[in-house]
Every structure is written in C-alpha cells, then in structure tokens.
Amino acid sequence: MNSLNRSISLFFLFTTFQLSGCTFSYDPPTDDSKSEIPTDIFNDSLASDQNLTPLINTSINPFDISTEELSTKLLKAVGGIEVLKKTKTEYEEYHHTIDGHITSGRKWVVIDNRSRTVDLVDGSEHSDLVCQQAGMQIHKAPFAIVDIDLKDPGYKEFCLHGSFLYAYPERVSQFNERNITPLGMDHDYYIFDMRIQNKDLGYFWVDKDSMLVRKQLTTGIAADGKYFADIVSYQNFIKNKTGYTHPTLICVSRYDYKKSKLGMQQKYNYTIFNISFDRKMDNSLFSVSDDIKRYYTLNTGKVYPY
Questions:
Q1: How far, in whole angstroms, is CA 235 from its chain's centroid?
Q2: How many whole angstroms separate alpha carbon 109 and alpha carbon 278?
C-alpha cells in the first residue's frame, strides 16, 4: 500500500474504543503560520502536460550524462548529503477530496521519531499522535480514542515522515546509481525509475536546468481492484535557512491506468502546501492529558510517552 492509499484509508483501519460517561479536555495545537488554501492549486500544467505521454506510449531519447553524474547533481541541487542528514522536522498543511469526502489538515513531524496530525474530515475533527512505540487517534465529536496499529512498516514510515518525496530526506539521499534506472530524456527532463530493496517508487521527471524532481508518477490498486496512476507535481521551490532546497507546494492528480496508459482523470485532488522544514517543535505539540493516556493504556496495554 503506498502512502497516498494509506492516507485515504487512515480513518478506517483502527479499532475504536468509545468513551462512556467520560469527558476529557482536548484542544489541538495552535500555530499562527496556518495559511489559506491557494486558489489555483489545481491548475497544474506539469501534472497534465504531454511530457508524460512519451514515457508511456513511445520511445524517448537516451541520457546525455551518466547515472553517477545524475545522482551527484540531484543531491547537490537539494543542498547535499550533510544538509539532508541535518533535516530533523517537517510541517505541512494539506487539503484533499477523495470519493466526495473533504479533508483539511496540518501535520507536524519530528522525522523518524514522532508526529501529530490534526484533520477536519467532513466537518469532524480527528487528531493522530504517533511515535516509535505507540499511536493514538482522537475523535472529538463523538469523542473516542482509537488505537493505531504500527505493525505495518509502511504505515509507520508514512506517519514518521512527511507525505511525499521531499518530506522524506532519507529517501532523497537514496538517489544514487544503485537505485536509479535511466529511462531517457523528454524535452527538458531526465526521466528515471527508482527502486529500493525491490520497492518500486515510480517514475521521476528531473528538470535539466535545476536538477530538481518536478514530477513523479506512481501506480497502485484501489479497493475495487482497479489500477490507478497518481501524478505528483512539485512546485514553488525555496532554499531554507539550513540550505535544504524543497518545494512548498505539492499537487496530486489521479487517473485510471491500464496497460501502461493513462485513462480518464478521477475525481480526486490531494494538495500539500505551506511546507517547511527545521522549524522548532516543542514536546507539548505531541502531548495529551493524563486521563487520555490512562484510558489509552487501559484499552491497549501500550504507554504513550509524550
């Protein structure tokens, strides 16, 4: 299951423990940097242009540089391996519409350690708190505490990193000749496939001038057994104070996918915006009341440490 599928099914995976006759105080964290959703986030030319079709339907031109040179330039473009190692936190806001369900939310991540997500799903508030040892989801209306199963390594990876490529610095650092398979050049892009430990991460389009990944195509299987393709567009790149160059806007469109060809676009939109890295995150962001901790431990046998 890829990270997009995982986020879609997030609210259907857990066993709910309803509270009877108990009232706990719960307030999601506040953050003055919360922004409005951009009005033009779905006007994404990179996600819909014809640069995708040569990969799927016809042959394309061979690389004019070696895979080793490509991987070296990819790492240099984002700031280098040392900058990636120093990137410790990620913040994002997002909005998605899937099968008529609308979700808006924010996510705070101490990379590979803990995360907090606050969502408004069709008007109902949910919050996820996840660390390496335990995880819970809080429904505010009606109030309930839900245990998050962290046995799925893919789900844990999704929670303890951001949602997409640049929000996962360790994955970016794995752009090397061992993991990349060159596919060719298409106009202004280098195109390659990336696979890590037999896990296919999809196709990547790298801008020849900036050497930044500008778009990505991944495929998956929906609950009805039909294949789909997600086209991810990385936009509005900045260099932050630590030297990490990353997008601040990510747009995803979903298409029917059959026999390596894109079909009709589905009624699916997923957008991440106001993305930032290395902002300070106090432990209080990941805390809940002692009453909630006790109830969680009573029902799960786990201890939530923050």
A1: 15
A2: 10
Enter the tokens of residue 68: 């080793």
The phi, psi pair for 114, rounded to 5°, reads -160, 160
> Residue 142 and residue 120: Cα distance in Å, rounded?
13
pTM: 0.79
Q: Does residue 210 belong to any structural domain of this protein?
A: yes
- For the chain, what is the domain count? 1
pLDDT (tens place) for every residue of the chain, 306 residues total: 444 343 333 322 222 223 233 333 334 444 444 434 333 333 333 334 444 544 544 457 888 999 999 999 999 999 999 999 999 999 999 999 887 888 999 999 999 999 999 999 888 889 999 999 899 999 887 789 989 988 887 788 888 887 788 988 888 999 888 999 998 888 789 999 998 887 888 899 999 999 999 999 988 888 889 999 999 999 999 999 999 999 999 999 999 988 778 889 888 889 999 999 999 999 899 999 999 999 999 989 999 999
Q: Are 192 and 201 in contact (CB under 8 A)?
A: no
Q: Is residue 278 within 8 Å of 127, Cβ to Cβ? A: no
For residue 31, is it within any domain?
Answer: no
Q: What is the CATH number of the domain that holds 272?
A: 2.50.20.10
Structural domain boundaries enclosing 228: 3-19+44-300
